[in-house]
Model the fold of this input.
Amino acid sequence: MQRKGDAQLKHKLFSALKKLFQVLLTLFLLSLAVFYMSRLAPGDPLRSYYGESVERMSTAERETAMERLGLDQPVYVQYGKWFANAAQGDFGISFKYKQDVSQVIGNTYFNTILLGGSAYLLTFLLALGLGIYCALKEDSLADRIICKIGTVTNCIPSFWVALILILVFSVLLKWLPSSGAYPIGSPNDLLGRVRHLILPLIVLILSHLWYYAYMIRNKLLEETKQDYVLLCRTKGLSRRTILWKHCVRNIMPSFISLMAISIPHILGGTYIVEKVFSYPGLGTLCFESAKYHDYNMLLVLTLLTGVIVILANLLAQFLNDHIDPRMRQTKRGFLR
Amino acid sequence: MTGNPFELVGLQPRINTTVAPVKRRHGRLPVVSMILLGLILLGCLFAELFMNHDPLYLNLSNLSSPPSSSFWFGTDPMGRDIYSMIWYGGRISLLIGLLSAALSTAIAVIYGSISASAPKAVDDGLMRFAELVMSIPSILTVIFLQAVIGQSNPFALATVIGVTSWMNMAKIVRTEVQRIRKSTYIEAARTMGAGFWYILFKHLLPGLIPAIMFMVVTNIGAAIGTEATLSFLGIGLPVETVSWGSMLSQADRALMTGNWWLIVIPGLFLVATLVCITDIGNYIRKENNRKCSNL
Done:
């Protein structure tokens, strides 16, 4: 018994280490690729640091500036330096903001988490509700109307939805603010923050909701064609009870993995919406740094997004292995 | 009391034994979408016949003027006629959609076929790479590539969009190629001495087309949407190059002054095109699925 427990622990440790190694390798390759490509780019990074004064620099001044920022060495040396520093938590300075990259990101990442996180949760809650409703009323008038509206909203670009909402609610009706994360000068005003969140949230939810709701609806409909549903019907359970107690439970594992793999999708959407609403977050930073060739910043932002996505995938795997009893039994190796 | 023994024990004759025929809702051609999309396509192709102003002429006496009998959809802050710009700029938008869909399809077919026919280790590696690329938000990859290329012409933009949207299709191609390769008619062709290229062009590609057609159509729509998003955000086409996206990139100024026509009208054309394309894509997918299940 003791030996078996030991072996199990060892196996778990080994697979955890393997996972960790894979994650680190992926991140390493990602940073290498992004670093190389950004240094091959034609844009002048000096311009983002010194602005227009680049034009007036003499050749000697340019060279000193390049040397000071470490831009004169071959790319692999630059990467080596960057990597050594990054390992100690120093990701270099942002050419545009002339601050540490980690500091600039530290100031803004919370806004993105607030917007993206609440949009993410609300989208999936609503999608689950809508999916269940449509599955329950399959092919009824309500279902067909929802499906049509959903398909249309799904293919409208989110920036246009945002523009229309701003036009209606900020410009015409003047109910809600159109940009920023909080009223100017009072970042601690909770109500103000909520008011600034409403429009971006609506846009994010509208542009993602139907994609997931439709998937859940179809998954549920597939599930209702199973034999056990027939058995439940003969037992005399109502449609509602069967759907809630059995079908919804059975699709939960695929729902959770859907939630995990959709993180990059919703994060990407958040970036766009942030830019449209000039919401100070990672997305706005991304666009700014791409525009001004601020490569240190872009590199870290790409890596950070990569880390979030990879962690989400790992979490999904872990949850999937543990939430569904069927998966536990068929797992290779150790049967419990 | 009747003499029917069945009714005596409580069995009733079934009244209605014919099953109502299941209504087939799919298989109906999306006529409205096709006509609308056809009209937009024709309008953009023969833009010269429809335009009543020069779309590039900056009419400085009519900056941001509302829709009128002379300027049907109004003018933008640079004094250009929006009605003419829509037909003229639609060309660029549609061109980018078609080009990038073609590029991503080509990449996907080649990548997927290689992955399906390669040894398992290579196959695993290729699929891992596709998943890696897919896991980064595509808007980030597009921003990044666009920053690296540093040029803002329609071809560069189409390349960037095409290069970042092949992953899903490559996966489908891989599964399809694997399925087709295993089927007996390929084996039969091989035993009769057919070469690799012959099998590729005569058997694999025709078998692939129905499976990826839906993705191709969807990709065209997605690429048009991405172009508009990028140009709107200021990292796609510049304002001087007229496209639906670059027209919308002036929306910031229009919002402040309340010039709704600059935002609503090009956007409606964009959305109508996207909805039609999606509708046709969905039809193709359903049609394809139906054929599969009827076999």
In short: Confidence is low (pLDDT under 50) at residues 331-336 of chain A. Residues 2-99 of chain A form one domain. Chain A touches chain B through 48 residues (CB under 8 Å). Chain A is about 75% helix and 0% strand.
